[in-house]
Amino acid sequence: MSGDRVKSLELEAMVVDDLTGGNSIFRRWEFNYAALDRFYSPEPSSTNRNNEIEERGVWIRFVLPRELRTKKEDMQDYPCIPNRWLIIRSDGIMGNVKSWVLEGDCPVSDHMEQDEKSAALETSSMYLISEQQKQFWENSSDPYRKNALTSSAAAGGYHVNMGVAFEAANWGERDDSPLFLTACAPGNPIFSAYAAHNRNILSFFDEMEGMDKGELDYFVVGWYSNFQLPDVYAGRISGIHWNKGGVAVTKEQDIYRDELAEIVQGQKLNVAVGASTEEAFRAYLNRRFTMDGKIPEERSGELDALLAALYYNVMDHKTSPAGRNRLENIIHDNKFESRSGGTKYVILSETEGRAELTQKEQDLLDRLNRFDDELELLTAMRQRLLEMWWKKGYLKTLHRHKNPRKPEDYDMFFDVTQKDSLVSSVMAKMHEVRMLYEYLPKEGEKLEQYGRDHGVKDGHILKALPKPRYWREGNPVILINGTEPAEDLKTGEYELLPQYNCSQVPKCPELPEELQSILEIVRSEAADGQGEIKKEQSDWYQPWKPVFMEWIIEYQPVNLESFFFDGTDYQYRGSESGTGELWQFGGISHLDAHHKSVFAQRISQLSEQTGISIGQALKEISGWKLLSQELVSLKDGMAQQDYRTFRRPYREPVGDSGYTLDEILGFSGNEEGFWEASGGRLESVPLISGDSYPPFTPFQAGRGKIAELFLYDAFGRVMPLILSGEEKGLFQEKNFPLIRPEYMAAGRTGGFSRTENRNEFWMKPRLLQYGRLHFEFLRTKEKEMVHGYIIVNHMNRSLLLYAPDGSLAGELIGIYTTSARRKVMFRPAGRSGVKTTEELIEKYPVLGSVAQARKEGTPEAFWEFLDTIDRAIWTIGQFGSDSDEDIALSFGRPLALLRAESFIELDGTPRQDAGWKGGFQAEQEALCGRKFPVRIGDQSIRDDGVVGYFLEDRYDEYHSIAMPEGKSGNIRQIGPVGTPDGNYAEAGYGKKGAAVMTILADPRGTIHAYTGIFPVKEVRVPQEEITGPLRRMEVQFQAGPFVTRIIPGTDGTHAVPEIGLPAFPHSHGTWSYGEQEEEYGLTVPENKGDQGEDRVSVREGILKYFQNK
User: Fold this and answer.
1) What is the pLDDT of residues 109-133, one digit of tens each?
2) Angle between helices 300-312 and 321-333 (to 10 degrees)
């Protein structure tokens, strides 16, 4: 027997006497697997609660150590928990002893007498067992298990009431079935933490029969039947004051502590809301420090910014606009949650990056990349089919309803004889995805070898890259101070459990030998005194640590037009329009325990790293009692989706298709690899209750109000925070106004009431479906990403035009004609092969179109275009090496012409109405025709390379990040940021709604795209796309007239004639001079007096500079 076999077990005890039971609200609900038969969820709605409890006695619950609540990475399931518990209760005053054995995995059985069976049904817990477990029981020699009361559940398992208490004096082990109980029950992750779910499995209610008062002691030992696992868990709790009539807790008569009463009497509870945990915490800190007088009210904004800067480590937020902007972007982006965007296969050159693909390679990529696209369509179609199946089954269970639909109306969706029926379409798509799956590299197969086997040529390599992730703003988060979550909500890393060391292991001579041996194991190791000693729980108190937060939100949608996009996010206009209809959404959220410690640790670390003192106030954070929890599934409810546990089809044949419906929907499959790649993706059913369901919308935009908010602990004891109606609850709205960030409190004059309602909070426009901003560069016919380059030539006040390969194509310059009129002239480069802008358009369409639009305008408009570019460039940081900057510093910065398209992309197809009307009428996608503003470029961020852009093919109208000074009307400033109804590009859903633009940008910088509805998008041009062209660039400008001499070229000295002209001191390039078709080198002018008039001349031509790269 090992020396560390017995582990410490923590116990909690709650006394339910006449005082506690009569004055407290209790919320106790079971995980009702039988509800699946009626197409209901086993989890209740947030409005279905009990307010009274009639039974009197003592609840004991066993707090599992964290090692039993944590699933390790190498484990397929959670570890098994003890299924046998010995409970010994002794009365310290009278000396009475009573004992029970809980068999957590024992079912209520026909073997029991009727009275015993009825009592067992009341005190046991509902559970879902597998077909295999049912077979074990049927083959068991134990009469209880052999005659178990099981009901076939619609989901394919069997629901059963389980957990039976036996008198310990007559108990003996009867079962040899394998262990199956874990801390997480089927579909129920909170099973071990809530007594109403695990009665007689991990908790026990002592009815205290024949005992009205006393001081109680409970000793509990847990083990595994037949010692299938060796560990034993033991714990003791003593000093429990029991008085059936209740004990008034006063200062004069402090018989025992009541944690809930202390919290309530402390009157220190506050509720804060934010779009993220960090935002709610900052709002709370702001309120706390201003109310305490530690921070003046007028400086609360500074404190908010400082807290965010400390948390996100952006310490230049006060010293530079770029730092402030970066902080705002981080705050915005951290409100979003993401999911995988899929995989994109690419073929690259092993040495140069981008590769010229063969047709076979392109076909391979097309086939591989189709899998994710078609799988998204299949998942959306499966979701629609599941909704139809669920609504058909749900209708059958409704006896009275006003719905005109009948169950048989849904048969057409499942008619396999019709090729265009929904089920036939799903099967066809499933077969298509199945064929594409066959082409994918198999698990463990190396991509490089797979590529070689499928036509990737030498020097090229096949790679799998993650696509950009899909994003959706998270649910609002509630933060409550004054209490904190239960310890046994925590999972993850844990320390080794200490040995149990107990000074008094009870002696119960009436117990059978089998139980005596269990006690002897505990007694023996306690006597050894090995291991760490854990203090006994002798100071009992009435515990209260919340496990659940239950809530109801009243939501009033408003039109999107009630908000404007300010270039970064959406802001409220000050008045709204909408339906005025209120919808209620509710939920039961399992509390999270770690956010406060994460925030406190983060601020503490950064304070030490930066040397910034944040005062004693912030150092107190670690001692505060705080909990935070998101309003789980609120936004899913707005989208008509119910993510609670739901019924699934089970072995339901679909005509003569050869498939069951669960296979078609991806809930099961015979081919494990294909199922893992394509199945198991449906997670919700329609949010419908009778005839009621919210109207369909793909957007969030409106106001929420907390109508109900309360917490309850593992025993179900409730602490109400906000309850609707007059004078309800312990805390009225006027005493506990909702703490909100400033933007959430805006515009509170209308809506729910004509007076300010302090429980309201604004929810900005967002998509309710995961999506992303698709941003893609469009290549030339020659597969070049850059469509050309331009340089503002300060020497000539002209515009140099470059082909995509970096070669000089020509120059635009404003000149005076012989008639003293001004115009914009195109001056072709000698070796470009083009002589007019029309020829330039034919050869380089984008570059030529930009040049043609400038040439057709006035010189004033042309010079305004150059000046506006110049002002924008001054706000952009320097990129690249010193030699890269040679041209930029002396002549002008090379700017790339990048053709791009941007549109909204969703995870799957756009959601459609999931209500009763859905599927029976022509449905137009709600996103069709809707455009969202997109700001391209950010003048406040130095690494942003955007100067401006042209929309679509309108090259005569330029959109600039800098404000133009002229009045030509051909240049519009982007935004301006912070103003309503600014000038922005607009992107809709899919390619049909794409915003196509030609962006003018330093290609070495980053392109930022702002939508408000997604995190800020950052895009960069791969450097291998621009390195060669930038190295090939040359510049030219008008030189002369000037007097000089030409030095003829000789075979021995010069390949071309040279001209005497002072050269600029550039170490990274070469100068030349040209006149029409003649090219000259440059040399230092001679100073030897007159050497012949034939060598002296007045010259006028073009001075050129080439980079030595």
Assistant:
1) 999 999 999 999 999 999 999 999 9
2) 80
